[in-house]
Structures are given as structure tokens and as C-alpha cells.
Amino acid sequence: MDIQGSVALVTGANRGLGQHLAQELLRRGAAKVYATARNPAQITSAGVIPLALDINDAQSATAAAAAAPDVTLLINNAGNYNEATLLDGSIDDIRALMETHYFGTLSVTRAFAPLLVANAPAAILNVASVLSWLHPANTGAYNAAKAALWAQTDSVREQLATHDVTVTALHVGYMDTDMISELTVDKNDPALIAAAALDGVAAAAREVLADDLTRHTRASLGGDHT
After folding, report:
1. Residue pLDDT, tens place only, 81-110
2. Keyword Oxidoreductase on this protein (predicted)?
3. Phi and psi at residue 8, in whole multiples of 5°?
């Protein structure tokens, strides 16, 4: 789809990748950008429209859709992170990741899908992860949540394919954001990732593989995962 002139809504736009996505949308000429967060007072980007949205609250998603009926591009970016392992991590921590990345994203998508169909051509961008495919034990719960989101993305894409709504998954490794600020790992520049993601949306790509780790991991599927 054409980013210029689009009406976009970005979840989790108060910081990190979401903030960069909102800013990049404006830079590319989006007509309107709804920037959402649980507390819209935390939205600091100039030129956006702050909007309250808690993706873990289905009523909040419904209210956001009612407040933004002109959306043509939905970006499901909001997420959370912990290092719960599957065998001995807190079941509440494990459930929190699945509730946000899978059920929360699905709630927002279900709320906006009728609008996207009505406003088509339209698009959805889901922020997944290289951990959709790469599954180290120390991030077992996060891996599972992102793998579930990947499956959700593929199914939603097929369901909306006949309605002129494209669905793109962004897969990327660690980014230099507040969410993982304490991790001592190589991190991608979120501004560059935002630009790559929107290039993918504009090209109606099924997937955006945003860094070398992700490209290598994706190419290894079906091979030796070691």
C-alpha cells in the first residue's frame, strides 16, 4: 500500500520501535497517525494523535476502533518481555506474554479488521521476532508467544487476502529499546528497523527480515537448527 496519504494506528507508540514507527510514518507523508498507549499522556511525538489503548482489554480495543474509524494501516507493535522459562518459570509470567503478544494483538486486529476492509486498500503490520523461529531455553515463554503471533499473522493474512488487506510480519532480533535495556547483546537501531518495516508494508511483503540473524535463521528452517 502507499504509505503517503495513509491513516495509520500504531500500538505501543509511546517509546521504542512504536515511537520510531509513528515518526517514520509522518516522515513518509501519512495523512494521520494515531499513536496509542495505555496512558496517552506518555505520547511525546509531534504531529501524532494520542489515543488510549490497552491491547489486553478488549473493550479498550473496541473503543479505539470507534475513535479511529478511518484507519487504513494497523501496526500491532505493543508488547512486553520477560525471561520466563517453560519448565520452571512463573506460569503467570508465561501467561502474561501470551496474553499480550497473541491474544492482545488478536483483540486489536479483530476490532479494526472490519474498518480496514471497509477502507481498503489497507494493511496490517505485526511486529514478531526472530524468536518466532529461534527458541533458546532461557526465553522459552517469549519464543512461544512470538511463534503463536507468527501463526496468527499467517492465518489472518489468508483470511483477509480477498478483501484487499495485506498482512506483513516484521521479524527482527534485539533492538536498542527500553524493554531490553539491561541485556548485554548486539542491538539493532530501531529507527532503521522502522524504515525497513514500512518498506515491507509498502511492497505488500509477507515478511520483513530485518537483520542478518533473522535472515540466517529464516533460511535455516527445515535444516539443522543447531
Report:
1. 999 999 999 999 999 999 999 999 999 999
2. yes
3. -110, 150
